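Notebook, bench 3.
Goal today: get a predicted structure for Transcriptional regulator, TetR family from Kibdelosporangium aridum so we can plan the truncation constructs. The sequence was checked against the plasmid map this morning, with no discrepancies at the termini. Length recorded as 198 residues. Pasting the sequence as submitted so the record is complete.
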Amino acid sequence: MALVLSQQVSTPAPLSRRDQILAAAAELFARHGFHGVGIDDIGAAVGISGPALYRHFRSKDAMLGEMLTSISEVLLDGGQARAQRHRDPAELLAELVRFQVDFALDNPALITVQERNLGNLTDPDRRRVRALQRRYVEVWVQAIQDVVDGVDEPSARAAAHAVFGLINSTPHSRHLDRGQMAALLRNMAIAALTGHKG
């Protein structure tokens, strides 16, 4: 996977030039919108000429496609890994919530780009991203149904999307520090899904 996402590690590996370009593009797309950013803007952000970007990506569309596909792959892989690791349904649901909260808080630009730019993808990239997103939602739907008595599949799916909206809408909040915001979001998400505080 080319896109390196923010992680809490003591000594992060240096980003490749390709990953630097994607990170800069994500920040610019989040701030100015996909159509408000040109190739020259992205090049300037990483210290190269706009045309030099074509050595790494065939187009701005290709950058966005790789960015959103990578986000979807990271989320799906993380969700599936937790589903395999946790046998207790309540623990799994709590871990899925923690994972989504951490991703949103650690990657606010990517969350913004993901939320706003699905319609700007090429048709093949949009189909791929949608397919990956559906598989990620399925992990959540099963976890919710395993924890919440009597919830049907449509309700579990609606609940998952509602919680994504809650979590993903707040990464830019400056009212609380990162730890306080993470705890608040986790508690709110668990309460919304189960009626109990996390």
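The domain at 60-195 is CATH 1.10.357.10 (Tetracycline Repressor; domain 2). The two ends are 33 Å apart (CA to CA).
Flagging this for group meeting.
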